Amino acid sequence: MKLLEVLNARRSFGGLVAVDQVSFSVFSGQIKAMIGPNGAGKTTLFNIISGLLPTETGKILFKGKNIHRLKPFQIAHAGISRTFQNPSLFLKMSVLENVMVGRHSRTRWGFIGCGLRFPGQIREEKHIQEAALEQIAYVGLEHLADSPAGSLGFGQRRMVELARALATEPELLLLDEPASGLNPKETEDLGLLIRKIRDTGVTILLVEHDMSLVMDISDDVLVLHNGSVIAEGTPSAVQDDQKVISVYLGKGLAHAAPGEKSSMRLRRP
């Protein structure tokens, strides 16, 4: 089943066309990767899908319904959650409090109910806390639940943001460069976690520059260059596509020193 459909999306900034008539689909249960050099339009597409930017043309369909005019909180409530290239956390709040924020789209009690502390609101807050603790344990940070987010390392902050995104109970999870800044062991663990998330029924669309990770975990890969789609298919098909090799991946390999592992490596290790 097509969970997400992007149809002829276009977005420009002044005279720069960042996304140029892009169309693709994400099927339920997939891990789909979106790759391309810096400036290819990947994050702009994520911002369009999550409602942070409007499209100039085209449609964004989620479960067959057009969502491209919805606000970000409405899209989150519909079942799409995301992370960002740089973790966006409340640094003075605890890990638990940060993840509890992610449950906002699933709450029923408003400002007045919270202020007056009705019994139903108290029960809901307890449920929110329990659900947040489950997500924190899921990403392996239960021992840091009470720690300020600002005291964590970069990789741990990424895991907190991921836990917060999962706390919204998404059907589609958008991961924007989740391996950025991680060491090889953390990246390996991330790949296992992404598969584990998919196996719970969450569909995943990720932007990533680590080609070893992309080729290892993805069911399908979309390649962008200068705002346009230049290839789409299985990892094995994409890694052998001559246009992809010459335009993007081959260029990365060409600039790697002899014996050096390139961040744009095409083949699996």
Reading the helices and strands in chain order gives EEEHEEHEHHHHEHEHEEHH
Termini gap: 32 Å
Strand content range: 15-25%
Examine the coordinates and then state which fold CATH places here, giving the name of the CATH topology of the largest domain: Rossmann fold
In helices, the fraction of residues equals 25-40%
CATH superfamily of the largest domain: P-loop containing nucleotide triphosphate hydrolases
Which residue ranges are poorly predicted, with pLDDT under 50 across at least 5 consecutive positions? Answer: 252-269
Task: Report the structural category.
Answer: alpha/beta
The major sheet is characterized as: 6 strands, mixed
**CATH structural architecture of the largest domain:** 3-Layer(aba) Sandwich
> Taking all residues together, what is the mean pLDDT?
86
Shape: globular
Strand order of the largest sheet: 6-7-8-3-9-10
Query: How big is the Rg?
Result: 19 Å
Reading off the top of the CATH hierarchy, the class of the largest domain is best stated as: Alpha Beta
Count of DSSP E strands? 10
How many alpha or pi helices? 10
Query: What's the number of structural domains?
Result: 2
